[in-house]
Design brief:
- This protein is mainly α and 249 residues long.
- The chain is built from nine helices and no strands.
- The chain has one domain.
Length: 249
Protein backbone atom coordinates (compact mmCIF):
# COMPACT_ATOMS: atom_id res chain seq x y z
CA UNK A 1 0.00 0.00 0.00
CA UNK A 2 2.80 2.40 0.92
CA UNK A 3 4.68 1.57 -2.27
CA UNK A 4 1.52 2.05 -4.35
CA UNK A 5 0.92 5.45 -2.76
CA UNK A 6 4.53 6.42 -3.45
CA UNK A 7 4.28 5.62 -7.16
CA UNK A 8 0.91 7.36 -7.33
CA UNK A 9 2.43 10.52 -5.86
CA UNK A 10 5.38 10.32 -8.25
CA UNK A 11 2.97 10.03 -11.18
CA UNK A 12 0.91 12.99 -9.97
CA UNK A 13 4.08 15.03 -9.50
CA UNK A 14 5.25 14.26 -13.05
CA UNK A 15 1.83 15.16 -14.48
CA UNK A 16 1.79 18.43 -12.55
CA UNK A 17 5.30 19.35 -13.70
CA UNK A 18 4.34 18.60 -17.30
CA UNK A 19 1.60 21.20 -16.95
CA UNK A 20 3.95 23.60 -15.20
CA UNK A 21 6.73 23.41 -17.78
CA UNK A 22 4.84 25.06 -20.60
CA UNK A 23 5.05 28.58 -21.97
CA UNK A 24 2.95 31.09 -20.01
CA UNK A 25 -0.29 32.10 -21.67
CA UNK A 26 0.36 35.76 -20.87
CA UNK A 27 4.01 36.77 -20.57
CA UNK A 28 3.24 40.16 -19.05
CA UNK A 29 1.32 38.52 -16.22
CA UNK A 30 4.08 35.95 -15.77
CA UNK A 31 6.81 38.58 -15.33
CA UNK A 32 4.63 40.51 -12.89
CA UNK A 33 4.11 37.35 -10.83
CA UNK A 34 7.80 36.47 -11.17
CA UNK A 35 8.86 39.78 -9.61
CA UNK A 36 6.33 39.30 -6.79
CA UNK A 37 7.71 35.82 -6.07
CA UNK A 38 11.31 37.08 -6.08
CA UNK A 39 10.24 39.64 -3.49
CA UNK A 40 8.27 37.17 -1.39
CA UNK A 41 10.47 34.09 -1.60
CA UNK A 42 13.89 35.67 -2.08
CA UNK A 43 14.20 39.19 -0.75
CA UNK A 44 12.07 38.47 2.31
CA UNK A 45 14.44 35.59 3.16
CA UNK A 46 17.57 37.75 3.23
CA UNK A 47 17.23 38.62 6.91
CA UNK A 48 17.25 34.98 8.03
CA UNK A 49 20.23 34.24 5.75
CA UNK A 50 22.15 37.18 7.23
CA UNK A 51 21.54 36.21 10.86
CA UNK A 52 22.15 32.48 10.51
CA UNK A 53 25.20 32.76 8.23
CA UNK A 54 26.98 35.33 10.40
CA UNK A 55 26.59 33.44 13.67
CA UNK A 56 27.18 29.96 12.21
CA UNK A 57 30.36 31.26 10.56
CA UNK A 58 31.51 32.58 13.94
CA UNK A 59 30.66 29.32 15.72
CA UNK A 60 32.48 27.25 13.09
CA UNK A 61 35.68 29.23 13.65
CA UNK A 62 35.41 28.92 17.45
CA UNK A 63 34.81 25.17 17.28
CA UNK A 64 37.66 24.56 14.84
CA UNK A 65 40.07 26.73 16.82
CA UNK A 66 39.26 24.94 20.07
CA UNK A 67 39.46 21.45 18.59
CA UNK A 68 42.55 21.93 16.40
CA UNK A 69 44.91 23.21 19.07
CA UNK A 70 47.79 21.08 17.86
CA UNK A 71 51.40 22.21 17.58
CA UNK A 72 51.81 20.28 14.33
CA UNK A 73 48.96 22.14 12.61
CA UNK A 74 49.56 25.70 11.40
CA UNK A 75 47.11 28.24 12.81
CA UNK A 76 45.97 29.28 9.34
CA UNK A 77 44.28 25.85 9.14
CA UNK A 78 41.36 27.35 11.07
CA UNK A 79 40.65 29.87 8.30
CA UNK A 80 41.16 27.28 5.56
CA UNK A 81 38.84 24.67 7.07
CA UNK A 82 36.14 27.18 7.98
CA UNK A 83 36.15 28.52 4.42
CA UNK A 84 35.81 25.04 2.98
CA UNK A 85 32.89 24.22 5.31
CA UNK A 86 31.05 27.45 4.54
CA UNK A 87 31.60 27.40 0.79
CA UNK A 88 31.17 23.70 0.10
CA UNK A 89 28.28 22.71 2.34
CA UNK A 90 26.84 25.27 4.72
CA UNK A 91 25.92 28.08 2.32
CA UNK A 92 24.35 25.73 -0.24
CA UNK A 93 23.05 22.60 1.48
CA UNK A 94 22.35 23.68 5.06
CA UNK A 95 20.98 27.05 4.00
CA UNK A 96 18.69 25.31 1.51
CA UNK A 97 17.37 23.10 4.31
CA UNK A 98 16.59 26.22 6.31
CA UNK A 99 14.90 27.85 3.32
CA UNK A 100 12.86 24.67 2.79
CA UNK A 101 11.28 25.33 6.17
CA UNK A 102 10.55 28.99 5.51
CA UNK A 103 9.88 29.13 1.77
CA UNK A 104 8.54 25.60 1.29
CA UNK A 105 5.88 25.93 3.95
CA UNK A 106 4.87 29.29 2.51
CA UNK A 107 4.40 27.87 -0.99
CA UNK A 108 2.53 24.77 0.18
CA UNK A 109 0.17 26.69 2.46
CA UNK A 110 -0.55 29.38 -0.16
CA UNK A 111 -1.38 26.95 -2.97
CA UNK A 112 -3.10 24.55 -0.57
CA UNK A 113 -5.38 27.32 0.66
CA UNK A 114 -6.27 28.17 -2.93
CA UNK A 115 -7.08 24.50 -3.56
CA UNK A 116 -9.37 23.99 -0.57
CA UNK A 117 -11.16 27.32 -1.20
CA UNK A 118 -11.75 26.20 -4.83
CA UNK A 119 -9.82 29.10 -6.36
CA UNK A 120 -7.78 26.65 -8.44
CA UNK A 121 -11.00 25.02 -9.68
CA UNK A 122 -12.23 28.46 -10.72
CA UNK A 123 -9.03 29.04 -12.72
CA UNK A 124 -9.49 25.71 -14.48
CA UNK A 125 -13.11 26.58 -15.35
CA UNK A 126 -11.88 29.80 -16.97
CA UNK A 127 -9.52 27.79 -19.17
CA UNK A 128 -6.35 28.80 -17.30
CA UNK A 129 -3.52 26.30 -16.86
CA UNK A 130 -3.56 26.62 -13.07
CA UNK A 131 -0.33 24.66 -12.49
CA UNK A 132 1.59 26.86 -14.90
CA UNK A 133 -0.04 30.05 -13.66
CA UNK A 134 0.62 29.38 -9.96
CA UNK A 135 3.77 27.26 -9.84
CA UNK A 136 6.03 28.43 -12.68
CA UNK A 137 6.64 31.97 -11.31
CA UNK A 138 7.52 30.50 -7.90
CA UNK A 139 9.80 27.89 -9.44
CA UNK A 140 11.67 30.33 -11.69
CA UNK A 141 11.75 33.04 -9.02
CA UNK A 142 13.33 30.83 -6.37
CA UNK A 143 15.78 29.12 -8.74
CA UNK A 144 17.06 32.45 -10.08
CA UNK A 145 17.36 34.20 -6.71
CA UNK A 146 18.70 31.42 -4.49
CA UNK A 147 22.27 31.81 -5.89
CA UNK A 148 22.20 35.38 -4.56
CA UNK A 149 21.30 34.07 -1.11
CA UNK A 150 24.05 31.46 -1.31
CA UNK A 151 26.76 33.98 -2.24
CA UNK A 152 25.52 36.32 0.49
CA UNK A 153 25.67 33.43 2.95
CA UNK A 154 29.27 32.66 1.97
CA UNK A 155 30.37 36.26 2.47
CA UNK A 156 28.61 36.62 5.81
CA UNK A 157 29.76 33.24 7.09
CA UNK A 158 33.40 34.16 6.44
CA UNK A 159 32.82 37.64 7.88
CA UNK A 160 31.35 36.08 11.02
CA UNK A 161 34.56 34.08 11.43
CA UNK A 162 36.66 37.20 10.88
CA UNK A 163 34.53 39.07 13.43
CA UNK A 164 35.07 36.49 16.17
CA UNK A 165 38.81 36.36 15.44
CA UNK A 166 39.08 40.14 15.60
CA UNK A 167 37.26 40.55 18.90
CA UNK A 168 38.19 37.36 20.79
CA UNK A 169 41.71 36.77 19.37
CA UNK A 170 41.01 33.03 19.43
CA UNK A 171 43.04 33.00 16.21
CA UNK A 172 45.23 35.81 14.94
CA UNK A 173 43.43 37.80 12.26
CA UNK A 174 46.45 37.56 9.97
CA UNK A 175 46.47 33.76 10.29
CA UNK A 176 42.73 33.60 9.62
CA UNK A 177 43.02 35.81 6.54
CA UNK A 178 45.91 33.73 5.23
CA UNK A 179 43.89 30.55 5.70
CA UNK A 180 40.90 32.05 3.90
CA UNK A 181 43.06 32.82 0.87
CA UNK A 182 45.10 29.61 0.86
CA UNK A 183 44.49 26.91 -1.75
CA UNK A 184 41.29 28.55 -2.94
CA UNK A 185 39.51 26.88 -5.87
CA UNK A 186 36.96 29.10 -7.68
CA UNK A 187 35.20 25.93 -8.89
CA UNK A 188 33.92 25.36 -5.36
CA UNK A 189 31.86 28.54 -5.55
CA UNK A 190 30.27 27.51 -8.85
CA UNK A 191 29.73 24.02 -7.45
CA UNK A 192 27.75 25.44 -4.53
CA UNK A 193 25.75 27.77 -6.76
CA UNK A 194 24.89 24.89 -9.11
CA UNK A 195 23.72 22.78 -6.18
CA UNK A 196 21.62 25.61 -4.81
CA UNK A 197 19.78 26.06 -8.12
CA UNK A 198 18.88 22.37 -8.04
CA UNK A 199 17.79 22.64 -4.41
CA UNK A 200 15.68 25.70 -5.21
CA UNK A 201 13.86 23.71 -7.88
CA UNK A 202 13.24 20.90 -5.41
CA UNK A 203 11.87 23.24 -2.74
CA UNK A 204 9.53 25.10 -5.10
CA UNK A 205 8.22 22.11 -7.07
CA UNK A 206 7.77 19.68 -4.17
CA UNK A 207 6.10 22.29 -1.95
CA UNK A 208 3.81 23.31 -4.79
CA UNK A 209 2.93 19.65 -5.38
CA UNK A 210 1.75 19.08 -1.82
CA UNK A 211 -0.22 22.31 -1.86
CA UNK A 212 -1.71 21.71 -5.31
CA UNK A 213 -3.12 18.31 -4.35
CA UNK A 214 -4.26 19.25 -0.84
CA UNK A 215 -7.80 18.11 -0.03
CA UNK A 216 -10.23 18.95 2.76
CA UNK A 217 -9.88 22.00 4.98
CA UNK A 218 -7.38 23.97 7.01
CA UNK A 219 -6.03 20.89 8.83
CA UNK A 220 -5.11 19.29 5.51
CA UNK A 221 -3.38 22.50 4.41
CA UNK A 222 -1.25 22.38 7.57
CA UNK A 223 -0.46 18.72 6.94
CA UNK A 224 0.47 19.48 3.33
CA UNK A 225 2.80 22.25 4.53
CA UNK A 226 4.51 19.89 6.98
CA UNK A 227 4.86 17.14 4.38
CA UNK A 228 6.32 19.63 1.92
CA UNK A 229 9.06 20.68 4.34
CA UNK A 230 9.91 17.09 5.30
CA UNK A 231 9.99 15.75 1.75
CA UNK A 232 11.93 18.76 0.42
CA UNK A 233 14.54 18.29 3.15
CA UNK A 234 14.92 14.58 2.39
CA UNK A 235 15.27 15.18 -1.36
CA UNK A 236 17.79 17.97 -0.77
CA UNK A 237 19.98 15.63 1.29
CA UNK A 238 19.74 12.86 -1.31
CA UNK A 239 20.47 15.29 -4.14
CA UNK A 240 23.41 16.71 -2.21
CA UNK A 241 24.96 13.26 -1.96
CA UNK A 242 24.39 12.51 -5.66
CA UNK A 243 25.60 15.91 -6.92
CA UNK A 244 28.68 15.82 -4.71
CA UNK A 245 29.68 12.43 -6.13
CA UNK A 246 29.06 13.60 -9.68
CA UNK A 247 30.64 17.06 -9.54
CA UNK A 248 33.58 16.48 -7.18
CA UNK A 249 35.08 13.48 -8.96
Amino acid sequence: MVLANFFEDVGKYVLMMRKVMTFPQRWKMFFRQYMDEVQKLGLDSIWIVIIISFFIGAVIVVQIALNMNNAFLPRYTVGFVSREIVVLEFSSSIMSLILAGKVGSNIASEIGTMRVTEQIDALELMGVNSANYLVLPKLVGLMTFIPVLVVLSMVLGIFGGYFVCHFTHIVAVADFEYGIQSFFKPFYVWYSISKSICFGGIIASVSAFFGYYAEGGSLEVGKASTNAVVMSSILILISDLVLTNLMMQ
